[in-house]
Amino acid sequence: MNNILVIGAGRSATALINYVLKEAAEYGWSVTVADADPELAAKKIDNHPNGRSAWLDVTKNNDRQDLISRADVVVSMLPAYLHLEVAHDCIRLKKHLITASYVSKELYQLGDEARDRDLIFMGEMGLDPGIDHMSAMQKIHEIKEQGGTITTFRSYTGGLIAPESDNNPWHYKFTWNPRNVVLAGQGTAQYLEGGKYKYIPYNRLFKRYRSINIPGMGEYEAYANRDSLLYREVYGLKGIPNILRGTIRNKGFCDAWNALVKIGLTDGSYPIHDSDKLTYLQLMEAFVSGQKEGSVREKIGTLLREEPDSEVMQKLEWLGLFRNKKIRLKNATPALILENVLLDKWKFENDDKDMILMQHEFEYEIKGEKHLTLSTLIMKGSSIDDTAMARLVGLPLGIFVKFVMLGKITATGVNIPVLPEVYNPVLEELKNFGVNFTESTKQLK
Amino acid sequence: MNNILVIGAGRSATALINYVLKEAAEYGWSVTVADADPELAAKKIDNHPNGRSAWLDVTKNNDRQDLISRADVVVSMLPAYLHLEVAHDCIRLKKHLITASYVSKELYQLGDEARDRDLIFMGEMGLDPGIDHMSAMQKIHEIKEQGGTITTFRSYTGGLIAPESDNNPWHYKFTWNPRNVVLAGQGTAQYLEGGKYKYIPYNRLFKRYRSINIPGMGEYEAYANRDSLLYREVYGLKGIPNILRGTIRNKGFCDAWNALVKIGLTDGSYPIHDSDKLTYLQLMEAFVSGQKEGSVREKIGTLLREEPDSEVMQKLEWLGLFRNKKIRLKNATPALILENVLLDKWKFENDDKDMILMQHEFEYEIKGEKHLTLSTLIMKGSSIDDTAMARLVGLPLGIFVKFVMLGKITATGVNIPVLPEVYNPVLEELKNFGVNFTESTKQLK
After folding, report:
1. Which of A102, B162, B339, B370 sits a CA distance of 20 to 30 A from A71?
2. Environment class of A51 (CB within 10 Å of its CB; exposed 0-12, middle 13-18, buried 19+)
3. Chain B nearest CA to A8, separation (Å)
């Protein structure tokens, strides 16, 4: 095998592209980076002798298939809904496929065809999902090999701003897809506690956060993800009484976000009338009524049961939601208007450093003794061009590409990285890039 | 024209069928009532010499088209999503079509074809939508003819239990589709107040009810419908600063329903794990967590910020939500479980009387003077077989069928009953059935 194709050259692909170019130089491979913006692709290649850029409109079947036909391994950094077309091409043209996205039901259905052709389709090979799977599985298998029974698995991840770049009252900036942050949690969160299924509807999700302590960093908040039950079987944890996956935020975030939810600003399902003609204050006014007395700010305070100078009200104020400034977006949903506000206020500046926090909690019994192990990853980026987020999404992808290119992967079909032959070498090599989990274990009474 | 076809013989069709049979005897028409249950259809015909029943599986195109081909006017009492097939048949076979359902976009698109064939397709010809349109339009046209400018139009309707049959703490029983009651209001309510658009997200809808007074009946609660802005143009009220459509409930209902929303029991989007093995108490427990102390009931109280013996908590208690009784429904969503509880607790008994309340509020200016007119309809049913709901849905349909049969309707195309040539004779004849709006007007300062 000689040729690697990376489709998509956006910010999240930088660490991946740098990694595979370096390995390509070592092994004499050729790397093609294809993007709708050929200049962006060329910039990422940066005249590397083993790289070349290509212009690709992925909706053009012939162009896409032509590029894929000339590769051995394809990495798709496209938005998740575009993977399936690429996957069908890879089946037909007999190419391996690797992505960082959640594996859809439709993609899983290609498993037999991929296996019949000795292909590996690896999904969820980024950070979350990705490194979370690998690091959790390594520990789960280790505990089981010691004869342990796992009674609790909780796993939290957060893409945050590093403390040294944290200069706003929300203690948050966008280090990843803003749309996903605004719409996060819609639906109902499901998890297990004491052997019982628990449900948190969206309207209470950000009230029901829990406090978690990250050793060396301090207290954070975590709200439950929708999908805590998804991986029970794949992880070999069927029957476990406590399982939860959550998202980490800084203290004070959840209460303030809950206020935005309650007002109605995270709803992306309908457009605000005349949104381009309204000011932010008028938008807020549109969400209150029935109270005759007081300013819009006071009415919002009443609606939220917040004191006028509470931290939550101060955070809303800081976003400029009570200002008479025009929204200037046509036909926009509340969620889009909010996203636009946040894009400005939570802007990640060029010199900002981001920070990834990941923490697993395992409670388990071995020979009648109960233990709690915390396994914690803390990684900071150095700037907008080298975020911890892009590194931790791109490096696992790149490392896995290398192992496939070297013929070291025997698994076939559609997979996520829960097999020892995958997670052991990938986690091992990730250590060279500073991806180290710190473990602490204490005995429980 | 000689033949009327009624598709659907359910409870809501009784008053309609009785009416058209009586008129058929008068005019020598023939009425066919078709249903998937031929015995039900025969029972509704009750050996009337002008009636005959037919068995019809509406998904069978040939059978359906055969019946339609032999009719002049078709009334579809099918669930709304099935109207479109019937409408296409009516276009092809050149038949008039009348329904009580909201006119869908797809149905509106058949307007030109219907007009070209001199057919009338009349939708929204029941109670709400139906009588609400007709009674409002009659008053709106009257005010305009007097040179008035309408500044406020609010319209409320409720299908309730009559006071003499009201024997439960919710003061509500099912007199219509239970599913629609459980899912009511999901989405965002939109209306106009003081010339400004207002939005109420679902999570605050039942907190934001208003009190309304129905002359002769007393105080009720009304929550905003999703669609208050829909009819502004059709009603000729473009530019009106205040418009609201709402649903009437008895006092105390909205706070208690809000509790069900907040807990998460109105969500129909996901199944509860092992729902057939849980008790109601265990289901409630699944919606609380994080609080270590106290009973499930106490935890729910805390979540709702309700005192242990508040009216809301008593209403939940009365539903049996804190009982250790099995749910016995497989793979059920919270909304389905709730519907099932309510079907039992809010059961409409054979001798119960239902009651329809409808009230329009018009504020308008004529020659510098401001007026408020209330127009109120109160109608009670006599039993389960003769509900006010079925009468008020069926009679307008039946009366309009008669006028079409007699060739008195000149309008063609897809319509809703906002034209004087439609609403005037229908409202006039409805008076013979006790459908009388009481009007009161006072001058405003």
Report:
1. A102
2. buried
3. 34
Beta bridge partners of B35: B55
- Ranges of residues in chain A with a pLDDT under 50 are none
H-helix segments, B28-172: 38-45, 61-69, 83-93, 105-108, 111-116, 131-145
**pLDDT tens digit string along B161-214?**
999 999 999 999 998 889 999 999 999 999 999 999 999 999 999 999 999 999
- Spatial separation of the C-alpha atoms in residues B301 and B283, rounded to whole Å: 15
How many residue contacts between A and B have a Cβ separation below 8 Å? 82
The DSSP element (H or E) to which B403 belongs, if any, is: helix B388-405
Cis peptide before A129 (omega within 30 of 0): yes
Percent of chain A with pLDDT over 70: 100
Per 3-state DSSP, what percentage of chain B is helix, strand, and coil (rounded to 5)?
35, 25, 35
CATH number of B3-123: 3.40.50.720
User: Which member of A201, A262, A264 has the closest CB to residue B188?
Assistant: A264
**Residues in A lying within 8 Å of B, measured between beta carbons:** 187-188, 190, 193, 196-201, 203-204, 208, 210, 261-264, 267, 269-270, 272-274, 282, 285-287, 289-290, 303, 334
Partner-chain residue, chosen from A198, A263, A282, that has the shortest CB–CB distance to B289:
A198
- For residues B6-30, give the mean pLDDT: 95
Q: Considering the entire predicted model, what is its pTM?
A: 0.92
Q: Which residue, B170, B418, B416, is CA-closest to B312?
A: B170
Which residue among A190, A264, A285 places its CB closest to the CB of B196? A285
Judging by beta carbons within 10 Å of its beta carbon (0-12, 13-18, 19+), is residue A99 exposed, middle or buried? buried
Supply the mean pLDDT for chain A.
96
Q: How far apart are CA B50 and CA B263, in angstroms?
A: 53
Radius of gyration of chain B (CA): 23
Total Cβ atoms within 10 A of residue B445: 3
Local confidence band at B66 (pLDDT 50, 70, 90 cut-offs) = very high
Token duo for residue A166: 């944290």
Whether the per-residue pLDDT at B289 is higher than 90: the answer is no
pLDDT number for residue A227: 87
Percent of chain B whose predicted confidence (pLDDT) is above 70: 100
| Both tokens assigned to A184 | 């996060």
Name beta bridge partners: A245.
Answer: A155
b/e B47-61 (16+ beta carbons within 10 angstroms → b): ebebbebbebebeee
Bridge partner list, B386: B383
**pLDDT surpassing 90 at residue B431:** yes
Q: Which of B198, B203, B285 has the CB atom closest to A289's CB atom?
A: B198
Question: What span, in angstroms and rounded, lies between the C-alpha atoms of B343 and B361?
Answer: 33
